């Protein structure tokens, strides 16, 4: 990698893009952006080894936009993505960066969305197409997509496309686009088939790889929390309450806007927090750091650049609220704690899609990173009660209470009330600012009362997720700049679905039983195996590797799956393919035993060509193969889960925690 480039302006991006980047609050280019953008702008082919979270989308989207001819309303760039969710995300990123490019059009096209809508949108014209391989191929065959003006082609998450069985379609598309195009291939890993594609279709590509030097961070205890849903703020505040030995924290986010937004939200919740971004003058920056040193601030929310070099020994925690771009940035970040011989804790918030980064960090820091569960509300409440009791004991031990004993004694005699009643009323008054039992929380002291209607979850009990997100959304949602949403972003069926990233993957290791299920879409409805795989994997959070043989019949199909729990069965009943609910149920005996033989669809002219995506989703077999003995669908193990089951149930961190020694008053007085 090249030396760090400090600004987007230094990358010669045009003014409209620089304005949009300023609005979204990007401070500096991420390493992959700094490396790729100049090469891309110079027209070079690129082979980028980068995973989600490194900023790779902007690394290709910005230079593609910079080189776009807005007057030519024909596809000039094509981005292929493995899933429709990613296609939509990438298209939204283009839209965001092109906010000041009037007339710009990006169009996502993916399987499962109505052809009519896509044909109409294509006929209106678009500058950039982002699509899944199968659907792009369909449009090329129908001639509804004309790529004769194509200048650049990007393969995003190429290893995922391989894993999902789309690589033949990708090659077919590569062969049907202008030979003079610029090609960029991004992949988190470089398995041999991907390298072969790069060798065959890229011209003297520049290789860009994110550096991952190994470092020792022995004094720092590293943990991660897998983000489910968007309520990172709720998770953060619970962790801040429950973390032991908490003194001060630096919380890392990606954008300047996010520093201010998150610091404001923490302040509103009573924390002494401030933002630190490259926008502050040197004087103001020093003021913030001095306040952190002196204890008038407990939390600083910072970007990587702004936090560089901070040396404040009382920083006990580093929270990676947004994932770092690379392992090097991570090591810099966590080096802000564990200073001057003290212990430090680093917590990483990471989404399922970013799990590869976790593995890379474990390798780079040569330490396993321990998963932690979201503290339950009950645990938070319990911690508050413990602190409260400790405050009372400290006050009894340290203060002269003679005058107050007398007040209580007089009250007992004059008002005929018991000491316990007075104490309870005082406790009530004392906790009003910061309730011991905040809204909806379980009763934290109930376990010590035999008559209690409440049950207190113990520290060792399995943790539950946030029951329902509060009205407030996390900063990421609320601070995102608004841009005019194109029609596709509202209309698409997939957009209404939970993004793949958020659907926890299930491992089904328990029973190991495989069941053949029947679903009510088949060949006549135009269903393709890869759509079925996509829908079941995305909506059910089932690892694609666990989806077995799929047989298509005229009006239904069968699919082999691990035995599904009832809740999941209910979800999948409503899941749609080709706009039809799957209405999944266990197949009757004998149902689905016919073998799969693909007939050309009515709208398909018979032709000799590469096998299509529906075939690509399964292992290839010779024409005379014995299909009755067909093995389960298999994918190479390039998935994000590594050796661990991809779905981690809410596991508790090892060990129980001693009572919080941080006094109640540590939070900012308001
Ligand atoms: P990606 O790796 O492309 O999926 O990007 C991950 C996240 O990083 C997205 O939310 C982007 O908006 C964000 N991001 C990308 N580049 C930057 C940057 N230079 N500064 C701050 N955030 C960024």
Description:
- There is one protein chain.
- This protein has 670 residues and is an alpha/beta fold.
- The chain folds into four domains: 8-211, Rossmann fold, CATH 3.40.50.300; 215-371, Rossmann fold (3-Layer(aba) Sandwich); 377-455 and 477-497, no CATH class; 514-586, 2-Layer Sandwich (Alpha-Beta Plaits).
- It is built from 24 helices and 20 strands.
- Strands 3-4-2-5-6-1-7 form a seven-stranded parallel β-sheet, with helices on both faces.
- Helix 12 links the parallel strand 10 (273-276) and strand 11.
- Helix 14 crosses helix 15 (355-365).
- The longest helix has 22 residues, at 377-398.
- The chain is globular, with a radius of gyration of 28 Å.
- Bound molecules: adenosine monophosphate.
- Adenosine monophosphate (AMP) is lined by residues 26-27, 29-30, 33, 52-58, 254-255.
Name some characteristics of this structure.
single chain; 670 residues; alpha/beta; Rossmann fold; 4 domains; seven-stranded parallel beta sheet; disordered C terminus
Number of helices: 24
Strand tally is 20
Mean pLDDT: 78
Strand order of the largest sheet: 3-4-2-5-6-1-7
Overall spatial form: globular
Total separate domains: 4
Q: Looking at CATH, which topology of the largest domain would you report? A: Rossmann fold
Distance between the termini: 47 Å
Going by CATH, what is the homologous superfamily of the largest domain?
A: P-loop containing nucleotide triphosphate hydrolases
Bound molecules: adenosine monophosphate
Helix content: 25-40%
Largest sheet entry: 7 strands, parallel
CATH class of the largest domain: Alpha Beta
CATH architecture of the largest domain: 3-Layer(aba) Sandwich
The class by helix and strand makeup works out as alpha/beta
Report Rg: 28 Å
Unreliable segments of 5+ consecutive residues:
440-485, 489-505, 595-670
As a percent range, the share of strand residues is 5-15%
């Amino acid at each position: 990698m090249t030396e760090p480039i400090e600004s987007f302006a230094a990358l010669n991006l045009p003014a409209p893009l620089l304005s949009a980047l300023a609005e979204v609050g990007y401070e500096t280019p991420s390493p992959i952006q700094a490396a790729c953008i100049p090469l891309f702008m110079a027209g070079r082919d690129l082979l980028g080894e980068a995973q989600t979270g490194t900023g790779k989308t902007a690394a290709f989207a910005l230079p593609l936009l910079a080189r776009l001819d807005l007057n030519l309303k024909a596809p000039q760039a094509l981005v292929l993505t493995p899933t429709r969710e990613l296609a939509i995300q990438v298209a939204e990123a283009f839209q965001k960066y092109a906010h000041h490019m009037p007339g710009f059009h990006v169009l996502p096209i993916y399987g499962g969305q109505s052809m009519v809508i896509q044909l109409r949108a294509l006929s209106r014209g678009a500058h950039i197409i982002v699509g899944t391989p199968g659907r792009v191929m369909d449009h090329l065959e129908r001639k509804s997509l004309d790529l004769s003006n194509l200048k650049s082609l990007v393969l995003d998450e190429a290893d995922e496309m391989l894993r999902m069985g789309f690589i033949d379609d990708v090659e077919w598309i590569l062969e049907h686009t202008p030979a003079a195009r610029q090609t960029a291939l991004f992949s988190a890993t470089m398995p041999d088939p991907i390298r072969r594609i790069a060798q065959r279709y890229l011209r003297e590509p520049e290789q860009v790889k994110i550096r991952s030097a190994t470092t020792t961070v022995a004094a720092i205890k590293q943990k991660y929390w897998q983000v489910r849903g968007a309520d990172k703020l709720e998770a953060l505040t619970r962790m801040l309450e429950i973390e032991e030995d908490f003194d001060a924290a630096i919380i890392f986010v990606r954008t300047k806007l996010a520093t201010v937004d998150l610091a404001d939200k923490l302040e509103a919740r009573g924390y002494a927090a401030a933002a630190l971004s490259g926008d502050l003058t040197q004087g103001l920056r020093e003021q913030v750091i001095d306040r952190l040193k002196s204890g008038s601030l407990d939390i600083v929310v910072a970007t990587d650049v702004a936090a560089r070099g901070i040396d404040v020994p009382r920083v006990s925690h580093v929270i990676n609220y947004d994932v770092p771009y690379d392992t090097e940035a991570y090591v810099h970040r966590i080096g802000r704690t564990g200073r001057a011989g003290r212990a430090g804790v680093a917590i990483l918030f990471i989404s399922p899609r970013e799990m590869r980064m976790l593995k890379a960090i474990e390798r780079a820091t040569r330490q396993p990173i321990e998963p932690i569960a979201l503290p339950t509300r009950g645990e938070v409440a319990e911690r508050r009660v413990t602190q409260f009791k400790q405050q009372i004991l400290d006050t009894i031990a340290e203060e002269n209470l003679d005058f107050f004993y007398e007040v209580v004694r007089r009250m007992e005699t004059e008002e005929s009330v018991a000491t316990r009643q007075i104490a309870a009323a005082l406790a009530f008054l004392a906790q009003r600012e910061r309730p011991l039992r905040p809204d909806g929380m379980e009763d934290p002291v109930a376990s010590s009362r035999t008559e209690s209607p409440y049950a207190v979850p113990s520290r060792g009990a399995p943790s539950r997720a946030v029951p329902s997100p509060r009205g407030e959304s996390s900063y990421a949602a609320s601070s995102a700049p608004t841009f005019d949403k194109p029609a596709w972003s509202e209309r698409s069926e997939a957009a209404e679905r939970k993004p793949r990233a958020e659907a926890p993957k299930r491992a089904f290791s328990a029973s190991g039983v495989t069941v053949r299920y029947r679903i009510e879409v088949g060949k006549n409805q135009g269903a393709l195996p890869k759509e079925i795989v996509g829908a079941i994997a995305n909506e059910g959070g089932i690892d694609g590797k666990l989806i077995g043989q799929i047989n298509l019949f005229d009006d239904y199909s069968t699919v082999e799956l691990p035995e599904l729990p009832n809740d999941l069965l209910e979800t999948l009943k409503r899941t749609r393919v080709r706009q039809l609910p799957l209405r999944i149920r266990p197949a009757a005996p004998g149902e689905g035993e016919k073998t799969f033989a693909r007939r050309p669809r009515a709208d398909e002219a018979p032709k000799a060509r590469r096998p299509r995506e529906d075939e690509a989703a399964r292992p290839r077999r010779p024409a005379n193969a014995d299909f009755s003995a067909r093995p389960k669908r298999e994918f190479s193990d390039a998935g994000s889960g590594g050796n661990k089951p991809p779905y981690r149930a809410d596991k508790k961190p090892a060990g129980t925690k001693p009572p919080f020694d941080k006094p109640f008053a540590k939070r900012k007085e308001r």
